[in-house]
Amino acid sequence: MNLLVALGVTALFAAMAYALGMVSRGGALGGFVVGATIYYCLGPQGFAVLALFVVGGSILTRFGYARKHRAGTAEAGEGRRGARNALANAGVATLCALLASLTPIDAFAAAFVASLGAAFADTAESEVGQLYARAPRLISNFRRVAPGTDGAVSIPGTLAGVGAAALTAALGYALGLVEGVGPMVLVALAGFLGTVVDSLIGALAPRAGNEPTNVLCTLSAAVLAIILV
Description:
Layout: H1 2-19, H2 25-62, H3 65-71, H4 83-102, H5 107-132, E1 137-138, E2 152-153, H6 155-174, H7 181-204, H8 210-228
Antiparallel strand pairs: 1-2
């Protein structure tokens, strides 16, 4: 019964995301696999955290899209996310969900929340920074660079990332995936630090590619959450 509910809810969500232009066909299929697995392992609580990232990230991507498009920094395909993007951003979270359901270790649920918090924070930093950062700087040497440059950081983007990581951790705490206010703060910190790793990789290895960098971003956040929590 749980599997049927997971498949039904996730299929409906994926279809709505595709109809609203949030994802491509491949993105809908990849999101369905990820979402169904997370729902089956962590229930509606885990799925709600995933939905926060998907919906919140899509809103941020579309916010000021015309302006970002003119500047040449907008996401391709009018912001529709593909299958590779879904797996790169939520693959680690899916693994954490599986481990949380198969083992008695509570830290895996916290790692799940932290990894999605990092993915959401990374999107927030990128999308907000491109709009409002007048002089972003490369994280490795603080040299001024153009908006959208790999490894660039800014005050508006950083604040948006902190907010996204904190919101994700707070939702995880409210839904019982993160136990305690102290662990909630640590999960938020882990999520934000994952984006720092992302920026460092972007600055030091700009040819690494967006998807591999996203995997390392979310993986770093998950590992840090396990260590801290």
